[in-house]
Each structure stands twice: as structure tokens, then as C-alpha cells.
Amino acid sequence: MVTMAQRIESLRTEANLSRPALAAALGFPKGSIEKFETGRQTPSKEQQEKLAAHFGVSLFYLRGESGDRTRQEDWMSGVSLNDDEPGFTPTPPPKPKRPKQEEPQGAMLDAVLASKPVQELLRKIVLDTLRSPEGQDLIRKALQK
Q1: Helices marked H in the chain — which ranges?
Q2: Cα–Cα dist 33/23, whole Å
Q3: Is-contact 68 57, C-beta < 8 A?
Q4: What does pTM read for this prediction?
Q5: Rounded Cα distance, 129 and 8, in Å
Q6: How many of the other CB atoms lie within 10 Å of CB of 141?
Q7: How far is Cα of residue 39 from the mean position of the Cα atoms in its chain?
Q8: For residue 110, what are the CA distances in angstroms to 106, 119, 126?
């Protein structure tokens, strides 16, 4: 798997830019690109977004999570939502049946999942996944069924 450090370095060398030139173009501190490429520092979310925008790649590609460079502004841009298509019938998924528990189990997990930071993290992960090309394919396939 490609790391973000490797991805940044390969994108920079493809663009034929020096580390200081890239840092100056993005308004980053002079030595920041070297730290990113050597893995001594991870770019912040804002810095990752600037890097991805500069090179015209998706955040998933920049982070090494995908091999697709496609840059999607809107994660729903590739999905057809035409209700007039024959065979299109949106149906909610069946509700899972939960066995009755006599005594509460998993109280610790429930407490962790109830915390606001964990909920925000899970929400971010789900949205990032759905925005990825792989997530787009899953949505398309689900809508076709």
C-alpha cells in the first residue's frame, strides 16, 4: 500500500517541483514538504486538501487509500437518481431482529459509541468512504437493484 508520504513525493516529482517551491506555492512553511515526504509529520486536513487541490487528485488518492486520481466535487455527481427508470423501486433494508438479552452486555462499547467524538469520527469515515470511487460504485449498484 502506498503511503501519503510516498504519494506526495511522487506527485511533486511528476510536477517537476522542488520541495521549497511546492511549499511556497501552497503557503506552507519552508521545510514542511520534506517532513511530509519523510513521514516525520502528517499534513493537517486543510494541508491535505490544499495538496490534493494543487495536484488535482482526490483526498483518497493523496492518502494512498485509492489508486484512482479522480477528483469528485460532489460524491453524488456520478449517481443517477431517475425514479422513472423501469425496475427502480426504493425499498428500505429489513430491520435486523435482535435477540432479547436478559442482562445488559457491551456496556463499555455502548458508552464509547455514545460519545460525541466517536460518533463524529464514524460519520466522517462513512462519508469519506461514500465519496470514494469504490463507495460510488457501491451506491450505483445498490440503486440499480
Answers
A1: 4-14, 19-26, 32-38, 45-55, 59-62, 107-114, 116-131, 133-144
A2: 6
A3: no
A4: 0.50
A5: 21
A6: 9
A7: 20
A8: 6, 11, 19
d(CA 57, CA 120): 25
The most distant pair of C-alpha atoms in the chain lies apart, rounded to whole Å, by 65
With beta carbons less than 8 A apart as the criterion, state whether 30 and 23 touch.
yes
Of 10, 118, 126, which is closest to residue 62 (Cα–Cα)? Answer: 10
The Cα 47–Cα 110 span in angstroms is 34
Cell numbers of 53, please? 487541490
Tell me the pLDDT tens digit for each residue of 33-82. 999 999 999 999 999 999 999 998 988 888 888 888 875 554 454 455 55
Residues sharing a CB contact under 8 Å with residue 66, sequence separation 6 or more, in sequence order = 58, 60, 132, 133, 134
Cβ atoms of 33 and 17 within 8 Å: the answer is no
C-alpha cell at position 54 = 494543487
C-alpha cell at position 36: 511530509
7 within 8 A of 61, measured Cβ to Cβ: yes
CB atoms within 10 A of CB 37: 21
